[in-house]
Specification:
single chain, Rossmann fold, 19 strands, 15 helices
Length: 495
């Protein structure tokens, strides 16, 4: 597991209304914990022995107990109807993500003395949460058996992991966005609203730190590690010492500047002056840090880095940041996709960036020069990209963004990378997302999203959608690739 994302431990607190048997809630809590331990890692959860029964004193006792146990997430379990006030106060005063879930009735033979009415109590819980402006995760259908509620808690963990991570995240940026890249504009107001800190630095600060690492004794070891990773793809061995020097610069900067925050991601300015001054491109180093769970975005894309971090927390795996880049040529579609995969040409596109994708997410990789930059710069200063086709398989394309007027907006779309040769350069893949053409027009363009999207390797749409809701994105502002029969609000109904 990455060191740069949190480990979640969820405290399970049962609640009981005083006119219902407390034993019903306690015994159901025990069954829930047993069900979770039977299927998942028991280190994920903590069973709080305090059952809250219509009492603020009980609430305080439970709160202190889960804090003492080191819980950074909370599960409020309605074993019966539940106490509206004290259960809501528990959620209000717990500093971390919280979830509400409720017990289903077990048997038709126990509907007199053993009926809990948690189905009803969940309605009152949701009402009171809104009344106190408490944001909580409530599953799609939050009422279930012990085994079903255990599954719900397990689905909550990646959502909680992202929320906990954001609360202790620092984004370190270097330089302003490149000229003409207004799309990477990043209003920071919403970062603070999310609990994220940001440290903005000049490229000169980074340049100075880089030179201080000249002849660093650790460089040979880093070079050796790079050589091992690249293998036969080590086409530019002469550039590795500089890249190693740069990697050490970034890692030391993180340790020296993260301050009171536990987790870090980086948004770096990678062109145009970077090449002429540093003498290389940072792509490969960016890919290596991302592979360690430290996302690094290109072109000072602060919300891109933020999105990558969220994806890393949810997936517990490396992510990447790509341009939603170019269409798949019609002849390539006819040759390699049509009739082999159930996608139209408009469902496909190519996701690309210069060479920032982790080597483990490339089918094969080679150290090369950055071809686009070499059109205007000497080739020798553009060395350092990691090029290769992205591994085929399921992906989730997503992004969290602040608009220019500081409104949070997000999108999530699931699809796949096709096993189709790209016939191109950079870190690149042929992507297919159902109804991508409509999603492109009515979410990406209509929502004024920039060209960068974060990519998680697997289908994580359900978790990401819930993360965005939990951190305060209005569900109306979360776009997704809607099926054909579901019209977008801005879609012309006569087409």
């Amino acid at each position: 597991m990455f060191q740069n994302i949190p480990k979640v431990k969820a405290g399970i607190v049962a609640v009981s209304r005083d006119c219902f048997p407390e034993s019903l809630s306690v015994n159901r809590r025990k069954a829930l914990v047993e069900a979770y331990r039977a299927k998942y890692d028991e280190a994920d959860i903590y069973e709080c022995p305090v059952c809250i029964v219509e009492s603020e004193i009980h609430m305080q006792q439970a709160l202190e107990d889960v804090k003492k146990a080191g819980c950074n997430a909370l599960v409020v379990y309605l074993g019966n109807f539940g106490p509206e006030i004290s259960e809501t106060l528990l959620a209000k005063h717990f500093e971390g993500p919280k979830m509400f879930v409720a017990a289903a009735e077990e048997s038709g033979d126990s509907l007199i003395g053993g009926r809990g009415d948690a189905y009803c109590g969940m309605l009152n819980a949701s009402y009171n949460l809104k009344l106190r402006n408490v944001r909580a995760y409530i599953p799609e259908y939050p009422v279930g058996t012990a085994a079903e509620c255990a599954d719900m808690i397990h689905e909550f963990l990646p959502v909680a992991r992202a929320a906990v991570g954001l609360s202790s995240l620092k984004i370190i940026s270097f330089g302003p966005r490149p000229t003409n890249f207004l799309a990477c504009n990043a209003p920071i107001k919403q970062l603070y609203n999310l609990g994220v800190e940001i440290e903005e630095n000049s490229e000169l600060d980074l340049f100075e730190a880089f030179h201080k690492h000249k002849d660093d004794a650790r460089i040979p070891d880093v070079v050796a590690d790079m050589e091992k990773e690249l293998g036969a793809g080590n086409q530019k061995p002469e550039i590795l010492p500089k890249l190693a020097q740069y990697e050490l610069t970034l890692l030391d900067w993180i340790e020296e500047h993260k301050g009171y925050r536990e987790y870090v991601c980086i948004a770096g300015k990678c062109w145009p002056a970077f090449q002429t001054q540093f003498g290389f491109v940072p792509c490969y180093v960016n890919s290596r840090l991302t592979g360690r769970g430290i996302p690094v975005s290109c072109e000072v894309d602060i919300y891109g880095a933020l999105s990558e971090f969220i994806g890393t927390c949810v997936s517990e795996d490396a992510v990447t940041l790509l341009d939603i880049n170019n269409t798949v040529p019609a002849d390539m579609y006819e040759e390699s996709i049509k009739g082999k995969f159930n996608y139209t040409l408009k469902d496909t596109f190519m996701g690309f960036h210069c060479g920032n994708t982790c080597s483990s997410k490339l089918s094969a990789c080679s150290m090369k020069y950055q071809m686009i930059m070499a059109r205007t710069l000497p080739e020798e200063v553009t060395q350092g990209t990691l090029e290769g086709d992205i591994v085929p398989g399921d992906i989730t394309f997503f992004r969290l963004q602040s608009t220019a007027d500081a409104k949070l907006r997000a999108y999530v779309a699931q699809g796949e990378v096709l096993p189709v040769a790209t016939k191109s350069f950079g870190s690149i893949g042929v992507f297919a997302i159902p109804q991508m053409g409509r999603f492109y027009r009515h979410v990406l363009i209509e929502g004024n999203y920039p060209h960068h999207g974060a990519v998680a390797f697997g289908h994580f749409g359900k978790s990401l959608y819930e993360v965005f809701k939990l951190i305060g994105v209005d569900p109306k502002e979360i776009g997704f690739n809607q099926p054909k029969e579901m019209r977008y609000q801005t879609e012309n109904p006569f087409e």
